[in-house]
Amino acid sequence: MKKFSTAAVLLAFATGIGMSSISYAQAAAPARCAFLSNAPDQHVVVRGDTLWGISGHFLQNAWCWPQVWGMNREQIRNPHWIYPGQIVYFDRVAGRLRLGTPTGGAPDTMKLSPQIRVEGLGREAIPAIPADKIGPFLSQPLIVEDEELSGAPHIVAVQEGHVNLGRNDLAYVRGNLNGGTAFQAFRPGKQLKDPVTGQVIANEAVYLGSLKLERAAKADSEVNTFRVVEAKQEMGAGDRLIAEPIAPVLNYVPHAPASEVNARIVSVYGGVTSAGQNDIVTINQGAADNIEVGDVLQLYRFGKTVVDPLDKKVAVKLPDEQYGTLFIFRIFKHISYGLIMQVRDTVDVGDIARSPE
Predict the structure, then answer these.
(1) How is the chain split into domains, by residue range?
(2) Contact, 100 vs 109, CB < 8 A?
(3) What distance separates the 2 farthest-apart alpha carbons in the chain?
(4) Is the pTM of this model over 0.85?
(5) How far is it, in rounded angstroms, from Cα 144 to Cα 146?
(6) What pLDDT is recorded for position 71?
(7) How many whole angstroms separate alpha carbon 131 and alpha carbon 78?
(8) For position 16, what pLDDT does the model report?
(9) Which residues touch 263 (CB under 8 Å, ≥6 apart)?
(10) Which among 95, 117, 64, 65 has a CA at the least distance from the CA of 249?
(11) For 262-354, which CATH superfamily applies?
(12) What integer pLDDT is reported at residue 11 of this predicted model?
């Protein structure tokens, strides 16, 4: 699919050019992407808004945002263009949302000025979902692949006179740092098993804290010296290190998956079996299954099989019950983490997470 720059998108809005020719999902069923009957004519973007929340002012389904904006795939991944002070207009005739500024211009125009950021994401840009709900899950190790586990540097000894390490203590580490200086300590947690096959598909990581390199080893027989910057849990000899990731940008649009998804809930973060609104869960599909950040899935519970009361020989399966939505925000090879956005019931391990219908 042809890619368009953010500047081009802004220019299109500014000149009123229709975006339907580059829409993400031109074939979207109008019924599922309908506007609310009481949708406002406009919404002034304020600090604290999210794309999900703004979408909820206008649309029955938040994941229809790309359709009503006419966005292509690149714009879904990099929506650089919504900031506090701007106005989202509802063009009822065109059945679209448009972006504008409070300058007295027509609803389908936007004045381009130095204040409109077309390159790079500013700190003020509104995120897709509340950042405070998922912040720690973006900066800490959650899943450690087998190849990372086997080759990870590890603590061989702690500062003399200490059993476990705390803030400002020294740790002595063996292993290849690959030029890195900032690391996170972890130990392997529970194995995550696919609820369908029963096979182990990932190993969760227990985050222990962060360390900074103070003195690198000069020979293979020497150790690297680290100082503990943060200690969330006790860490000591045998614990592993992983390079500290670059903090990701929380800038993506809620959208339906590009391909059909039919996944299952693997686990609820925190070790419990049921989850509710704003809880974190994992599904048994990831990057290898074309799952993307920003995918929105619908949650279903398997319909029960019941016996026909008038014909005891006949068993009838009831329809699967759709009861909530899940926003995917972090992806690994075979596992993805999602935030439960809206539910009418508890989310249980084994429940279905599939593409919106």
Answers:
(1) 6-130, 142-243, 262-354
(2) yes
(3) 81
(4) no
(5) 7
(6) 82
(7) 16
(8) 35
(9) 283, 284, 285, 289, 291, 297, 336, 352, 353, 354
(10) 117
(11) FlgT, C-terminal domain (2.40.10.410)
(12) 32
Residue type, 234: E
- In this predicted structure, what is the pLDDT of residue 123? 60
Distance of alpha carbon 170 from the chain centroid: 34
Amino acid at 336: S
Q: What is the dihedral of CA 6, 7, 9, 13, to 10 degrees?
A: 140
Per-residue model confidence (pLDDT) at position 272: 79
pLDDT the model gives residue 122: 54
Distance spanning both ends of the chain, measured CA to CA:
24
Tokens of 181: 């200086």
Which tokens belong to 277? 């609104």
User: What is the DSSP secondary-structure string of 293-332?
Assistant: TTBEEEEEEPPPEEEETTEEEEEEEPPPEEEEEEEEEEE-
Tokens 């003399």, residue located: 160
Flag residues of the chain having pLDDT under 50: 1-29, 104-121
Structure tokens at 11: 């220019």
Eight-state DSSP code of residue 270: T
Q: What pLDDT was estimated at residue 290?
A: 94
Backbone torsions φ then ψ of 281, nearest 5 degrees: -135, 165
Give me 240's structure tokens.
């592993």
Contact (CB, 8 A) for 135 and 329: no
Cα gap 244→153, rounded to integer Å? 13
Of 101, 126, 88, nearest to 254 by C-alpha is 126
Alpha-carbon gap, residue 357 to 351, rounded angstroms: 17
- 122-to-53, 70, 157, 348 alpha-carbon distances in Å: 20, 23, 42, 38
Q: Find where tokens 């419990």 sit.
A: 272
